[in-house]
Amino acid sequence: MHHQQLKPAEAASLPRHLLEAHVVALVRRCCPGLLALRAAHARLIRLRLPRLTAAFALSKLLASSSSSSCGAAPSYARNLFDQIPEPTAFCYNSLIRALSSAAGVAPAADTVLVYRRMLRAGSPLPNSFTLAFALKACSVVPALGEGRQLHSQAFRRGLEPSPYVQTGLLNLYAKCEEVALARTVFDGMVGDKNLAAWSAMIGGYSRVGMVNEALGLFREMQAADVNPDEVTMVSVISACAKAGALDLGRWVHAFIDRKGITVDLELSTALIDMYAKCGLIERAKGVFDAMAERDTKAWSAMIVGLAIHGLVEVALKLFSRMLELKVRPNNVTFIGVLSACAHSGLVNEGRRYWSTMQELGIKPSMENYGCMVDLFCRSSLLDEAYSFVTGMAIPPNSVIWRTLLVASKNSNRFDIVQSASKKLLELEPCNPENYVLLSNLYASNSQWDRVSYMRKKMKENNVNVVAGCSSIEINGYLHKFVVSDDSHPEIKEIRLLLREIADRVVRAGHKPWTAAVLHDVGEEEKEVALCEHSERHGSWLPALTGNATTMSIVGVYSTARQIFR
């Protein structure tokens, strides 16, 4: 019977199986769309269905509301669930799935609460789908603590070997940047690994900048005859961008073209970001111009890329064009706009864009606040910077206090230095970077007693400085060098080469700039220390090997200083 002709009196006389078939047809016809789903719900209420059929109808509505295409609010799904007298495992799974589609920390916590409610009820028991949906909710935030609780439940209930649970765990740990745990799950997966598993693990490596591992796994994936998709390639391209590995990025882009992989919005945006971060801003612009359609993320990536290359006028013109086309900017867009102003000393323009952001109803992120602080500090407006920081709507993080501290030190504003250093150590008493920064600050002024005090505080708080690390890409492979580490096979030869060069330039009249060595040691020890910098080791590797067909210094960073240049 057609659902539009069914009346309450007719529904009462229909057999149960025909009524349920009618319910299924009605719910299917209304999806996707929350309004249509609510209309179907209202119609089913008017039919005054028998108790069992009503519960069946509610379960079908609940399942439809949990679909990502429906767009229903989790509160509606919960309302449906609460009306079901004896919810089945299917109902619990549908509710958890609906919660997993919502953004924010609360859904992850709510998911665990629903899971615990299911356990307390005693029946039905959670199955592999229950845990898979719950783990997805924890991956969205991501919420590592709640995810670990679910992992423990999977182990206790013998559900850990399920491919659905394993994929959920892998996604969780990869998105939480717990790559060691993610790799353990990945290696322990039963049977052939699917595309989702490979992509999640590659994405996990990409997030933490482990480019060699990400690309190595990508090659393993090809050897296993698993064809990558756009999601996989976004992770691989992002890994190249984080490491600044231009040649690898070019190779991956060529691979995408060769394999005919669809270059969608997200992949195009990743390519823009990669080329911009690797120094080829014109290539990034080429990708951007070739896009048939552009979303906010694509515009933002291009604006940020132009800003970091110092093309301030072009970046701001592109932002104006974005607004003309009625594309709504977001926080990331304004990071590019405000950083462009900061690097060009455009204080008034920066203030104006800050006002524009608030007029558009965009809530400033910590990064947006940081850009404004950087703008004021670069323009030596330290009083305004300090006033801005102390008046922030959210508590300033350590990066903002650190920016203010360095600028104040350079301008001899030791009143602000004192306040900023105090806040910094209060926020992160166990972060070695803060102690290194303050020690270097005191050492540059030959305040060795304060340097000793910082070392004492580090010892008291059990803080250890992580050695700096530098990388160089040669012929498509990343070589890493760590301060005071002998693990690289050519390190001895590099040191000999550097010492020989240092001796030659000294004999030619060069005087080493030992002031850069912020240690209370003799001049000779300082000269030796200059040769031990990991960046120098990386820079001179090509001269030693002599077989570099392509070479670029990439990802030169110090984990002790948290600087990525």
UniProtKB/TrEMBL annotation:
Any one Gene Ontology BP term: RNA modification
GO molecular function: RNA binding
PPR repeat placement: 194-228, 295-329, 330-364
InterPro entries registered for this protein in UniProt: E2_motif, E_motif, PPR_At4g14850-like_plant, PPR_rpt, TPR-like_helical_dom_sf
Database matches in Pfam families: E_motif, Eplus_motif, PPR, PPR_2
Gene3D superfamilies listed in its UniProt record: Tetratricopeptide repeat domain
Keyword line: Repeat, Transit peptide
Stored PANTHER family: PENTATRICOPEPTIDE REPEAT SUPERFAMILY PROTEIN (PTHR47926:SF461), PENTATRICOPEPTIDE REPEAT-CONTAINING PROTEIN (PTHR47926)
Name of this chain's protein: Uncharacterized protein
Origin species: Oryza sativa subsp. indica
Lineage of origin: Eukaryota, Viridiplantae, Streptophyta, Embryophyta, Tracheophyta
